[in-house]
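User: Hey, my collaborator sent me this sequence without any context and asked if I could get a structure. I don't really work with proteins. Can you help?
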Amino acid sequence: PSGATLTTTSATVNLPATTTVSTELKTNKISPASGTAFTLGDSGDTFTIPAGATITNSGTATGFGGGKVLQVVQTAFTTDTATSNTSFTAVPNFEVDITPSATSSKVLVNASFSIESTNSGTLAQYTLYKDDTTNLGNSTYGFGIATYGTANGRNFASINYLDSPNTTSAVNYQIYQKVDNGGSCKVAGGSAVCTITAMEIGA
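Assistant: No problem. I've predicted the 3D structure and written it out in structure-token form, which is a compact way to encode the shape of the chain:
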């Protein structure tokens, strides 16, 4: 009846399909009557979490929409590495591997590195390869050209690329470099700290 209170201690109460509580329901656990899942509310409902409250998740949260950062992998690279090749050549160990958790995930790759030339007039190009086979930049110029007016010119470069690998197998991303117009170019001159980071973004 109205105004009555039901108190249970270490008990299980089976409620009917629809139960209306007009003000407040306090309980330590809600479990589905059958199966392993239950629905909280209906489409269009709003649930308010008051200031100071904390929600703790000990499992896996799903269904909250895309854009979640699922994992981050980074490689720090400090090996002074030069090339005089006129075709794109891998920078050994300046790479990162990531294994997506779903085929629908995207991978955001960010690389930041110092660059340097040995000759005046050198044209240096840098790019990002996937799995040592796919140039993700322009086939000729990669992600850009650095032109040096003086020998031993130094600069800074960055590459940002959003990839859709469509796999749950490991994917490798590596920096490549090449030169035109003579001379040589290098990354991590003077053992500067360079990084390449791969972030899995949930669909």
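In plain terms: The chain is about 0% helix and 40% strand. You can pass these tokens on to your collaborator as they are.
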